[in-house]
């Protein structure tokens, strides 16, 4: 701790200990605690306590105060825990009696303030620090704090229960801590103390798991999931033997509302040494999770199973069947192709599922869950085993058609935007699948219908656009794609750029930017873009009423200019022109796209690649054209060595000054007339858009 | 109760309800789709239409080149457009007592019904319906009279010739019944028969039924009607909307508990959501304007146009539509825009409250003030000097066969920069465009129909729970183009009764009760006796007087004492003699106690036989029969004293009134 802070600390602590002083910002205690934790880690906590007698003084002052603030007390308790993590500091504090004062919760101030959940939570956190060493553990054991910690596990406050779970898991894994391993092995008293604690805790878990209260069972499962990954033999065997029975009962329970915590526990167990052990029956339990009567729960379990690393292939295959089943079932009902998912276990399940799929209220959550799981699978590069990916993509598309009202069956899904969103997410992710390019045409057709549908929500449209982008990037460029771009995509984009909802306009413009960026080097695309008639619309969008849309329009224009190359964007119809020239700025890391919307003049700056040729007209933007009124000269005066460039705008409308804030401009060499910048500098293209000024027409 | 269906068109209905001695016509919509078979009426000499070749049959035998012209593979009649009227033959129109109008689109055939048919009844409509309906009729007349056609084509209607014609013309039905448009005089005369009503106002018809208009939420002054007597209720739902647009919201609760609900005027485009279409409309318009093109919107001069203008007003600023002007061209443009602002009481709450600020309820007033929206009676005159492009033009008629729209189609049709956006769902846009082919102009179909869709109507019917539903036939099956969409039809329990043009439906419900009033002095004389808890019965003797479908029971007039006369007594009509009425009996004869009573009176041998209706007691010794049935008791015996005894025994068990 540096001198200033050291000098300041006593005063700070004094203020905090003063009950009459009110702290206006309650986050400052957290910040202070973070700082103190850093100090305790960087320096020796023991010397911190020794050199600053104000610390024990502060803690005892708070603990003996008549009416302390719960926040301050919680702070003091956590602080004590941080310090007590160091064995030396612990001893020092114990000498002063502070430890007992703080952690003896059955007497004194702690008893008075015990009702406040923040105090209980702080107490558990503090203990977590304390039980980092053998002496701390012994203190914990001897003071009988174990019983209180176990009670806290069933506390009303979730913060307290989570703190208790962490503490108990930590104690169970105490023997595995590197700093404690030796003492537990060597020291008999320590060993026996720890043994007693573990016996109590294991019994507690096993009892709670068999309890009737669902909340308590949930907490026990959480504790188990926290403990298992760090647990070692022989405690691991003992723990598992104690919980196996109740766990099995829980899995067989109908309805099982604790699917996710049970799966987490099993997942944790599967990562331990128990997994290979036949009597631990972990795989059996996991498989049993798939027998639930509720298809929603089964899909949740199945989704978790796919994520298990060590799980057998056959079980994964079965889980996959469950995930895909609703999807394939509903799509095969319209196409009359038999579903490839036909396992015996799946068949039993099928009747329930079919019933649920015919009703909108149950069908939508089920299919959403199935689709989300499919999305997750593809994002982890999962292979669909022997189920062809094209079939999955086909099923998702079929569902999308149903939502669009174009399918022969299942009219109850028409217009369901929640499903559409899930379908589009899944389709986006599925674009990476093998063999995607073979059905790209069909997928793009479905996506085109989503884009064209006037009833599509803005989010659906945005997701459709993202999916289109992903699928366009699949495989190589083909004439088919040219056809899609020119005949389907561009016309619909043109309309969407002018949509009533600004969100749609915005996401369409973003999409155009991304699309142009993707095809920067593609001459066919360049030509398509140029003749599509989109560019005048982009120019017009730069004057949109919504600032987000303007920003996206500028970005889209910038990208279009880059893609189209030096000739820029010209629009003979409206008399608008976009041209580009390079300004000799030397900048190191400029990632800006500055937008100016001054009257009718818009300037955007865009980074271009190194070595871009310098335009001869360094300062003048363009030559005046015959129709004088439509053009404005923009002259850039100079680039300051600092961080801005000013430009004056001459022309028929009043001069205005454009201020461009550059971040990270190299201060040393920014004079545009400087000698050697040509060779090594990066350039920025300055794209200047000029518009007819409304006042002149 | 009978329903005569004079029109099969679901949204342009014309039905006649005969109910309790009244004959009520419900709407008289005019089907103008027949105009699509005719060549457009150009405002100025048209290069395009004058050069079209005449039609000659393949073998050259029939030459109708004066009447029929060929364009892009289709044949059009070169004559003033004619309209398909509601059926005239099904029933004598002069017997109609009243006509109830639900909205201004459903009254366009009114002059054909009320004029030259002997009609002497009354037409009921709300004020906006009358005024805007008048505007639409005047506009139609103006469109026709502006460009009179010298000749009228009739030869093609000959059955033998029509059979040989190509395309849709061959399949047109009832062409002889098609009529040319009415004139101003007929409009005025027809509208003079209209009597104005307000929402929830109860109108008595001959004392027999009461009719009440209710807000239907579709257009300014649009209404559904309740037709009810004391014991029966018929609801007529036509063109209703649950969307929040400019009119007053729909009154649904008053439709509850109807015996029959006649359902017409659902949305014509059930697959298109009006909000989505409005969005499409705006984006297509903006796209064209930004690219420097003009936009043509063929539309009616009232209705959705108000919402379109309002939507554009909001969209314009955010979407940078620049300075492109909006033109609204119609002979009645000015009146339409101004009428909309003064019918405040017929508008939705939101717009009504603006009036108190005071602000014009519709934002098009501001558009006019700022010169963004300009309106002209026609393309001639001021418009031609102030016309600036690119622009947006709203003009009629949506069929593209007459009105100023014809001119713009010719003017802008050649450039692909321009766009025509169809917003009215009444006409197939492909048919409307047929005579203008080939066309470079972009065409966009954004039909905006705010009327109830099937989903909404199913929900509505679930709430109001009518006993029977009557609807046009097309609503009982999915549209032919989308036969798999079972959600696009009415599925009800019991199934709705479909009707088609010329059908006469006997509505499946009987009138069982009639209300009769008792005069107070008569009521005073009654002596009710309770036969069941809560139900009392009294006999009454009175004279029933029926007048104006009202029935009153009056005390029997006392016979005036005969004037003393010495002359020979003339046979005078005696007033009906007031006899003391025989007591009425009620109750049932219980078998066991009755047998016991017989036993007590010495009748021992009784054989009881059970029959379907009761019992037959055979008194064997006396050789008599007693038939005890639910609604009668018969005693069969030769001996009069025995019969009297038995009668008295039976009477003991019955209640006398």
UniProtKB/TrEMBL annotation, chain B:
SMART domains: Beta-Casp. One of its GO terms (cellular component) is integrator complex. InterPro entries: Beta_Casp (IPR022712), Integrator_9su (IPR027074), IntS9-like_C (IPR048660), Metallo-B-lactamas (IPR001279), RibonucZ/Hydroxyglut_hydro (IPR036866). It comes from the Eukaryota. Gene3D superfamilies: 3.40.50.10890, Ribonuclease Z/Hydroxyacylglutathione hydrolase-like. Residues 305-433 form the Beta-Casp domain. It is found in: Cytoplasm; Nucleus. Its main location: cytoplasm. GO terms for biological process: negative regulation of transmembrane receptor protein serine/threonine kinase signaling pathway; regulation of cellular response to growth factor stimulus; RNA polymerase II transcription initiation surveillance; snRNA 3'-end processing. Keywords: Cytoplasm, Nucleus. Belongs to the metallo-beta-lactamase superfamily. RNA-metabolizing metallo-beta-lactamase-like family. INTS9 subfamily. PANTHER family: INTEGRATOR COMPLEX SUBUNIT 9 (PTHR46094). This is Integrator complex subunit 9. It comes from Denticeps clupeoides (denticle herring). The gene is INTS9.
């Amino acid at each position: 701790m540096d001198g200033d802070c050291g000098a300041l600390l006593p005063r700070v602590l004094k203020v905090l200990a003063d009950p009459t002083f009110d702290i206006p910002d309650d986050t400052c205690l957290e910040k202070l605690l973070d700082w103190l934790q850093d100090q305790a880690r960087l320096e020796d906590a023991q010397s911190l306590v020794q050199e600053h007698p104000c610390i024990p003084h502060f803690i005892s002052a708070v603990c003996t105060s008549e009416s302390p603030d719960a926040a301050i007390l919680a702070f003091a308790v956590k602080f004590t825990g941080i310090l007590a993590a160091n064995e030396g500091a612990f001893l020092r504090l114990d000498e002063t009696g502070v430890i007992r004062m703080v952690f003896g919760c059955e007497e004194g101030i702690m008893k008075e303030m015990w009702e406040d959940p923040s105090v209980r939570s702080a107490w558990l956190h503090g203990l977590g620090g304390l039980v980092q060493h053998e002496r701390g553990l012994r203190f914990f054991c001897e003071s009988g704090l174990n019983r209180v910690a176990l009670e806290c596990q069933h506390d009303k406050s979730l913060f307290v229960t989570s703190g208790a779970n962490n503490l108990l898991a930590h104690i169970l894994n105490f023997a595995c801590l590197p700093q404690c391993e030796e003492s537990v092995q060597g020291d008999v008293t320590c060993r026996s103390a720890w043994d007693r604690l573990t016996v109590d805790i294991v019994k507690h878990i096993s009892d709670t798991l068999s309890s009737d209260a669902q909340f308590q069972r949930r907490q026990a499962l959480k504790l188990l999931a926290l403990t298992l990954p760090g647990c070692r033999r022989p405690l691991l065997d003992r723990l598992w033997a104690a919980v196996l029975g109740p766990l099995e009962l829980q899995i067989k329970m109908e309805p099982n509302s604790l699917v996710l915590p049970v799966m987490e526990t099993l997942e944790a167990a599967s990562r331990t040494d128990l997994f290979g052990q036949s009597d631990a029956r972990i795989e059996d339990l996991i498989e049993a999770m798939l027998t639930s009567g509720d298809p929603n729960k089964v899909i949740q379990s199945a989704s978790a199973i796919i994520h298990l690393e060590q799980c057998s292939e056959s079980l994964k295959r079965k889980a996959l069947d469950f995930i895909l089943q609703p999807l394939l079932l509903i799509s095969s009902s319209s196409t009359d192709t038999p579903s490839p998912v036909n396992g015996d276990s799946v068949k039993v399940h099928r009747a329930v599922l079919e019933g649920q799929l015919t009703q909108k209220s149950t069908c939508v959550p089920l299919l959403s869950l199935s689709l989300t799981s499919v999305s997750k699978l593809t994002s982890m590069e999962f292979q669909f085993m022997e189920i062809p990916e094209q079939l999955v993509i086909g099923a998702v598309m079929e569902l999308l058609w149903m939502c669009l009202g174009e399918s022969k069956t299942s009219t109850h899904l028409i217009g369901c935007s929640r499903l559409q969103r899930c379908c589009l997410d899944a389709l986006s992710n599925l674009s990476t699948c093998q063999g995607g390019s073979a059905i790209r045409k069909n997928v793009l057709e479905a996506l085109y219908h989503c884009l064209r549908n006037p009833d599509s929500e803005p989010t659906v449209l945005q997701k459709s656009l993202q999916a289109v982008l992903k699928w366009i990037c699949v495989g190589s460029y083909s004439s088919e794609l040219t056809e899609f771009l020119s005949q389907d995509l561009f016309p619909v984009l043109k309309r969407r750029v002018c949509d009533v909802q600004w969100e749609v306009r915005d996401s369409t413009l973003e999409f155009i930017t991304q699309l142009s960026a993707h095809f920067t080097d593609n001459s066919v695309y360049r030509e398509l873009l140029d003749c599509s008639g989109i560019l005048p619309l982009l120019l017009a969008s730069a004057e949109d009423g919504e600032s987000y849309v303007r920003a996206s329009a500028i970005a889209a224009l910038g990208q279009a200019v880059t893609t189209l190359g030096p000739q820029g964007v010209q629009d003979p119809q409206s008399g608008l022109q976009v041209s580009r020239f390079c300004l000799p700025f030397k900048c190191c890391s400029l990632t800006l796209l500055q937008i100016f919307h001054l009257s009718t003049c818009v300037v955007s700056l865009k980074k271009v690649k190194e070595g871009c040729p310098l335009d001869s007209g360094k300062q003048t933007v363009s030559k005046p054209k015959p129709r004088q009124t439509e053009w404005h000269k923009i002259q850039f005066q100079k680039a300051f060595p600092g961080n801005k460039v000013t430009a004056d705008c001459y022309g028929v409308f009043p001069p205005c000054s454009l201020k461009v804030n550059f971040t990270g401009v190299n201060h040393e060499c920014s004079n545009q007339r400087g000698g050697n910048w040509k060779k090594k500098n990066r350039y920025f293209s300055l794209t200047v858009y000029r518009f007819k000024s409304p006042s002149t027409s | 109760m009978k329903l005569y269906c004079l029109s099969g068109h679901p949204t342009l209905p014309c039905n006649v309800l005969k109910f309790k001695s009244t004959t009520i016509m419900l709407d008289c919509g005019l089907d103008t789709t027949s105009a699509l078979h005719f060549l457009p009426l150009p405002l100025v000499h048209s290069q395009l239409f004058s050069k079209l070749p005449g039609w000659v049959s393949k073998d050259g035998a029939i030459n109708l080149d004066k009447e029929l012209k060929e364009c892009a593979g289709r044949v059009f009649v070169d004559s003033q457009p004619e309209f398909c009227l509601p059926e005239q033959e099904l029933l004598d129109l002069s017997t109609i007592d009243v006509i109830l109008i639900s909205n201004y689109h459903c009254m366009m055939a009114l002059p054909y019904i009320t004029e030259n048919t002997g009609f002497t009844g009354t037409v009921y409509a709300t004020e906006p319906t009358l005024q805007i309906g008048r505007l639409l009729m005047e506009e139609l007349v103006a469109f026709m009279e502006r460009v009179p056609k010298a000749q009228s084509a009739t030869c093609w209607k000959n059955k033998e010739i029509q059979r040989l014609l190509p395309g849709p013309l061959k399949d047109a039905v009832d062409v002889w019944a098609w009529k040319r448009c009415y004139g101003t005089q007929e409009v005025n005369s027809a509208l003079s028969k209209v009597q104005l009503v307000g929402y929830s106002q109860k109108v008595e018809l001959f004392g027999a039924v009461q009719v009440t208009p209710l807000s239907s939420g579709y257009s300014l002054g649009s209404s559904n009607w309740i037709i009810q007597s004391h014991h029966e209720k018929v609801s007529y739902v036509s063109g209703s909307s649950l969307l929040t647009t400019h009119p007053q919201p729909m009154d649904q609760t008053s439709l509850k508990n109807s015996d029959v609900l006649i359902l017409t005027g659902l949305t014509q485009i059930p697959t298109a959501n009006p909000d989505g279409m409005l969005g499409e409309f705006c984006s297509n318009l903006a796209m064209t304007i930004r690219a420097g093109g003009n936009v043509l919107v063929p539309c009616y001069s009232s209705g959705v146009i108000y919402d379109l203008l309002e939507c554009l007003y909001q969209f314009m600023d955010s979407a940078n539509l620049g300075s492109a002007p909006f033109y609204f061209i119609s002979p009645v443009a000015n009146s339409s825009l101004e009428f909309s602002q003064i019918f405040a009481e017929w508008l939705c709450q939101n717009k009504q409250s603006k009036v108190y600020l005071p602000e014009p309820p519709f934002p098009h007033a501001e558009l006019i003030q700022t010169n963004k929206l300009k309106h002209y009676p026609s393309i001639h005159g001021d418009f031609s000097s102030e016309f600036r492009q690119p622009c947006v033009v709203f003009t009629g008629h949506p069929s593209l066969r007459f009105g100023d729209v014809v001119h713009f189609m010719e003017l802008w049709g050649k450039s692909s920069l321009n766009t025509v956006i169809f917003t009215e769902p009444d006409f197939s846009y492909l048919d409307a465009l047929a005579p203008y082919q080939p066309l470079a102009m972009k065409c966009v179909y954004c039909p905006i129909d705010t009327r109830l869709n099937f989903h909404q109507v199913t929900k509505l019917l679930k709430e109001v729970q009518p006993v029977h539903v009557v609807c046009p036939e097309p609503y009982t099956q999915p549209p032919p183009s989308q036969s798999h969409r079972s959600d696009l039809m009415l599925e009800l329990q019991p199934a709705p009764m479909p009707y088609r043009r010329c059908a006469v439906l006997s509505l499946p419900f009987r009138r069982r009760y009639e209300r009769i009033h008792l005069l107070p002095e008569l009521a005073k004389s009654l002596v009710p006796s309770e036969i069941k808890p809560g139900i009392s019965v009294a006999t009454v003797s009175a004279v029933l007087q029926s007048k104006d479908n009202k029935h009153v029971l009056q005390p029997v007039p006392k016979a005036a004492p005969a004037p003393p006369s010495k002359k020979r007594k003339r046979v005078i009509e005696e007033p009906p003699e007031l006899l003391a009425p025989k007591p009425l009996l009620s109750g049932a004869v219980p078998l066991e106690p009755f047998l016991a009573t017989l036993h007590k009176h010495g009748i021992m041998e009784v054989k009881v036989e059970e029959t379907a209706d009761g019992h037959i007691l055979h008194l064997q010794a006396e050789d008599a029969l007693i038939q005890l049935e639910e609604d009668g008791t018969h005693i069969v015996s030769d001996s009069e004293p025995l019969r009297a005894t038995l009668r008295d025994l039976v009477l003991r068990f019955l209640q006398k009134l």
